[in-house]
Give the backbone structure.
Amino acid sequence: MAQRKLFGTDGIRGKANSFPITPELVLRLGKAIALHFEKKGKAPKIVIGKDTRVSGYMIETALTSGLVSMGAEVMLTGPMPTPAISFLARSLQADAGIVISASHNPSEDNGIKIFDSSGLKLSDKDELEIERIIFSEDPGHSFHEGKAIGKAFRVEDARSRYVEFIKSTAAATSLKGIKVVLDCANGAGYKAGPEALTGLGAQVIAINDKPDGVNINLDCGATHIKGLSQKVVAEKADVGIALDGDADRVIITDSSGKEINGDKIMACLALDLKEKGRLAKDCVVATVMSNAGFEAYLKEKGILVVRAKVGDRYVIEEMKKNGFNFGGEQSGHIIYGDYSTTGDGIITALQFLRLMKEKGVSASGLGNGFELYPQVLLNVAVREKRPFEQIPKLANEIKSAEKALVGNGRVLVRYSGTENIARVMVEGKDGAEIKKIADSIAQKIQEELA
């Protein structure tokens, strides 16, 4: 398959107002999306949501212009979680859903993710076809005229539709009596999150729920939980919940502020599904990043872990291909296939709270049923993403590390799909040893690629 020029592991992403996130290119993207989803000459219906970044206005306008110039009907929702757009694409019978967001990235970044009519992220093949259209000079891609021009309008009840849907996934259990600190990351879930939790009876203390266009993910949310942990302890709350900028992932803390990461959340929720006879094929789909301790624990419980490439889209593809209904990532992207076709941080949080209430156990008792193996994760900024095997000194360093850990750990070195970063993960039983190995690999990357 040809190399994609724009799309990464989670759509198109970059600095707002720099290639590829420029108004000019986004307008061309809008045209290409309209052409890709056009069916037998019928213009498509497209729903668009965004997070709270100030650059979302610029991108939304350019994208809408490109779409309507090709006759598309555009439904605008304003700030809305990524999984909400996946849901609304289905609920509103749209041909596609588009999210303007850079997820957990800082506010100066932005991006574009695309869902099909089933609420699934596009395949690599579809993304390549859209890129082909963007860079084509085919005169058939010219703008429409007169009555063929499309239109755009606001969907006033978009958030209420989504909130009622996510509440329905846990509606059989009242959350009354649970005190929750909810970190909204100043992002897309700043209204839907508190509404869903309070709607089911939880006492909610919302923090980082006042976005100003530039404070999204700023020292808050699922990638910065220190403030949440402190607030949980100060408020004597039962549990802390941290969303990320587009609310498709979640990290949880117990009442002491201790982190319960995606692997631990997945484990307890998978066991719940198995106990209820609802875990398809007694299997969970995780990625290569999930901890070996997680896999060993589930194996003891009779649950098989199948691993996919990094990225919730690849988890979902594996689930769909083999008929599995549950999976996710260590980072907190968790997919309940019975409810959603993408990671949904709020649904995951509701399911965790429901399970706390049903079992009458604390967040700590629910989420800390096993120990994770020591794991070191390092990010190294790089100037280019050259294949590691083409850099002899680095390739040899990685091979030596793998040999040293054989049977007792593993090494994973990869590039980020959305940033110029090399990610180093080393896992094993000896914490000191794996830190030394990870630092050595990171140093070699800096020498060769920084």
